């Protein structure tokens, strides 16, 4: 009788513990944050790959002419995140890219300052 009782306790303990095949913690997002900086009148890097759901974070610094920068997507295509239309002299701004595509942008304060985010 003691053997049957001990066996029942082992089965009960095993059932309460669950199996090793279930996840042991919260699921983690695979989305990442990609950094782009302004240096003088250049976005660095100028071309950046991303995945849907990734965040692009621009870090802005004052240009040699004393102006800040902005980010305007040109041409404006469906799925592009909103522009960063106002001049930013310092600090960061972030946008999440949810749609696949090539997103070209420009700082219209410095017309030759361009970049591209390729979401694939």
The H-and-E topology, N to C, reads as: HEEEEEEEEE
Q: For the residues shown, what is the average pLDDT?
A: 84
Tally of domains: 1
Distance between the termini: 65 Å
Largest sheet: 5 strands, mixed
Shape: globular
Low-confidence runs: 2-23
Radius of gyration: 25 Å
Might you state the CATH topology name? Immunoglobulin-like
Order of strands, widest sheet: 3-9-8-5-6
Strand content: 35-45%
Question: Any guess at the CATH architecture?
Answer: Sandwich
Per CATH, the superfamily is Cupredoxins -  blue copper proteins
The SS-based structural class is: mainly beta
Annotation field: number of helices: 1
**What's the level 1 CATH class?**
Mainly Beta
Number of strands: 9
The helix content is 10-25%
Description:
It is a single chain. By secondary structure, this protein is mainly beta. The protein has one domain (31-119): Immunoglobulin-like (Sandwich), CATH 2.60.40.420. Helices cover 13% and strands 40% of the residues. It has 1 helix and 9 strands. The chain has one helix at residues 2-17; strands spanning 33-39, 42-44, 47-50, 55-60, 69-73, 84-88, 91-96, 101-106, 114-119. A 5-stranded mixed β-sheet has the order 3-9-8-5-6, with no helix packed on it. Strands 2-1-4-7 form a 4-stranded mixed β-sheet, with no helix packed on it. The termini are far apart. The relative contact order is 0.21. Residues 2-23 have low confidence and may be disordered.
Strand and helix layout:
Layout (H helix, E strand, L loop, with lengths): L1 H16 L15 E7 L2 E3 L2 E4 L4 E6 L8 E5 L10 E5 L2 E6 L4 E6 L7 E6 L1
Parallel strand pairs: 1-4, 3-9
Antiparallel strand pairs: 1-2, 4-7, 5-6, 5-8, 8-9
């Amino acid at each position: 009788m003691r053997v049957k009782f001990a066996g029942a306790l082992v089965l009960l303990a095993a059932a309460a513990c669950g199996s090793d095949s279930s996840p042991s913690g919260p699921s983690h997002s695979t989305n990442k944050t990609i950094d782009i900086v302004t240096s003088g009148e250049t976005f660095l890097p100028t071309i950046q790959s991303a995945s849907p759901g990734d965040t692009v974070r621009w870090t802005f610094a004052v240009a040699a002419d004393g102006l800040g920068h902005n980010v305007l997507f040109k041409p404006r295509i469906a799925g592009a995140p909103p522009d960063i239309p106002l001049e930013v002299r310092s600090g960061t701004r972030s946008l999440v890219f949810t749609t696949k595509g090539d997103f070209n942008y420009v700082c219209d304060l410095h017309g030759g300052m361009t970049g591209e985010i390729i979401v694939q």
